[in-house]
Amino acid sequence: MTTDPRQAALTAATTPEPWDILVIGGGASGLGTAVEAATRGYRTLLLEAHDYAKGTSSRSTKLVHGGVRYLAQGNVSLVREALHERGLLKRNAPHLVRDLGFLIAAYKWWAAPFYGIGLKMYDLLAGKLNLQASRYVNKAQALARTPTLKQAGLKGGILYFDGQFDDSRLAITLMRSLEDHGGVTLNHAPVVGLIKEGGRVVGARFRDDETGQEHEVRARAVVNATGVFVDDIRRMERSDVKPMLSPSQGVHVVVDRRFLPGDSAIMVPRTDDGRVLFAVPWHDHVVIGTTDTPVPETSLEPRALPEEIDFILRTAAQYMDPAPTRADVRSVYVGLRPLVKAAEGTDTKSLSRDHVIRISDGGLITLTGGKWTTYRRMGEDTVNRAAAQAGLPERLSLTAGLKLHGATTQDLPDHWKVYGTDAEWVQTLPGANQKIHQALPYTEAEVRWAARAEQARTVEDVLSRRLRALLLNAQASIEAAPRVAAILAEELGRDQAWQAGQVRAYTDVAQGYVLR
Ligand SMILES: Cc1cc2nc3c(=O)[nH]c(=O)nc-3n(C[C@H](O)[C@H](O)[C@H](O)COP(=O)(O)OP(=O)(O)OC[C@H]3O[C@@H](n4cnc5c(N)ncnc54)[C@H](O)[C@@H]3O)c2cc1C
Predict the structure, then answer these.
(1) Which tens digit of pLDDT belongs to each residue from 465-487?
(2) Nearest-CA residue for atom 5 of ligand 1
(3) Among 64, 406, 430, 434, whose Cα sits 20 to 30 Å from the Cα of 154?
(4) Residue 31 C-alpha to ligand 1 middle, in angstroms?
């Protein structure tokens, strides 16, 4: 067993000296804000209730994109900003972002010119940070890129380029970057109350979920970046506050790579009910989604409705041959969109995807909305507001040019790439050639690394977000859980009962990702 790194972080977090900025929530928004604050030299603490990216930030479509759909809606400034951020992220985290071709298949004569014009505009809005330019492709070229595209009636298509990434790995990379720049960050540490003095929010109470002990921390500015849970924190300040969110859920299914064996994704610009659908190659599998279904309440583990799965598979079958069926689905995952409420009766598809920063009378700064692609910009805007509000010395943002932890352009094989420059260290640990399951690419060394260097505390932290086993093959991940629990127990100094409890808890969660 090595020394448990959590103790040092806990001691640092609970120092009596007030923090400049306390960030509540360790998803894209919170991590982006905390990295922004720490790199400007502000003393920064981040508290995450469960694990980094446990919420929506591990359940995205995995695109670093301007959003072709928002262009169709005429939201040009949002698209321009996102395309700019796409370019920055590719520069700053080349180990996590890659260019990917997206094919819009044309089965009608007018479709290629129609989408082609829009995508030229998309290229132009990206300016000098554009990836490859979009172009027309004929039927043979389309099939060379996406061999399982339905051939009957296919005229050709448009090929355009966007970025693709690994969402929870970016979250872990941001957490490491935060630590690299002197920030303190704790997971399994839910905020359970806010501290108020003279009507102002001056700190928070959090619980260390490993001991049950509560602690108080003070801060000059408190940022609420809890995704679909922002209203819970806002209610800690004022119980009668009106909710700002109107969440909707998006479902994805994951199938084997043989359903999309080429080097490009398929983009369906308009499904039967007016949505966009992607089939995207990811970690040697294919992610297909998504849906947009308003939900009455928030949950940490939202569940797909049968009609959402049917919709995805039915739409995929219109474009793919062979088409995946229910029996081919390796995993189903569901994310909640933190959409900012509009007037009564508005459809969630048309609500803002832009971010919103709201400051309460007591000074609580709430950041929500937006998307993964623009996390850096959201962080920059939030820290500008927080610093002004807390009277912190003004300091320039550095993150546009900040290389994230492990950044390298070296081309490492398959899943090792996400570790960047850390890959060589991971490979020195015991078990670098020992897989955790024959159907998964991951090794025992990575489990040890997750515990030693990446704050993994539970089997779920490892199998869902340090490794992507839960999303790639939920059943295989359940079978791997006992071995992962045993390695973690060795690393963290836990007993047999802990291991059994971990396997039970993980199995409970992962069963929800298996399609029956
Ligand atoms: C289906 C879907 C697909 C998407 N696809 C894309 C895409 O391809 N590209 C893209 O750019 N964007 C995409 N997005 C948008 C993007 O994923 C989200 O905007 C982003 O992940 C939201 O991050 P967040 O930090 O605001 O919320 P979250 O990721 O939900 O993070 C909030 C965190 O706060 C924590 N928390 C809650 N309560 C407390 C508490 N009391 N104390 C401490 N912590 C707490 C939670 O545990 C959670 O980890 C997609 C969204 C959805 C829903």
Answers:
(1) 999 999 999 999 999 999 999 99
(2) 60
(3) 64
(4) 11
